[in-house]
Amino acid sequence: MASDLDFSPPEVPEPTFLENLLRYGLFLGAIFQLICVLAIIIPVPKSHEAEAEPSEPRSAEVMRKPKATAPSANKRPKKEAKKKR
C-alpha cells in the first residue's frame, strides 16, 4: 500500500519567455505605482532658492490682464427659434 503513493513533485512546465516578461513587467509596474503613491504621500521640502525667485514673476502676472477667449470654431451658434414639426 505504501508503494502505491507517489510522492514525486508534479511536472510543471518551464515558464516561457512571454510568461517571464509578463511576470517581471507586472513587478516593475507595481514598484512604479508604489513609488508614485509614496511621492504623493511624502512631502518634499522646497529649496530656499526656488522660494525666492518666483516672487517677481507673480507680481508681473497680477499686473497683466487676462486674455479674452475667442469662441471655438468647432461650435455652431445656437438657433434662435425651434423647428416646427
Account of the protein in words:
- It is found in: Membrane.
- Keywords: Membrane, Transmembrane, Transmembrane helix.
- Belongs to the UPF0239 family.
- The protein is built from three helices and no strands.
- 0% of the residues are buried.
- Helices cover 46% and strands 0% of the residues.
- The chain has helices spanning 17-41, 48-52, 55-63.
- The mean pLDDT is 76.
- The longest helix is centred in the middle third of the chain and has 25 residues, at 17-41.
- By secondary structure, the chain is mainly alpha-helical.
Provide a compact summary of the structure.
This protein has helices spanning 17-41, 48-52, 55-63. By secondary structure, it is an all-alpha fold. Its main location: membrane.
Strand content: under 5%
Distance linking N and C termini: 90 Å
Broad structural category: mainly alpha
Mean pLDDT: 76
Order of SSEs: HHH
In one word, what is the shape?
Answer: flat
How many DSSP E strands?
Answer: 0
Radius of gyration of CA atoms, rounded to a whole number: 32 Å
The biggest beta sheet reads: none
* Low-pLDDT segments, ≥5 res: none
Protein name: Mannosidase beta like
Pfam families: UPF0239
Membrane topology: Single-pass membrane protein
Biased composition (Basic and acidic residues): 48-64
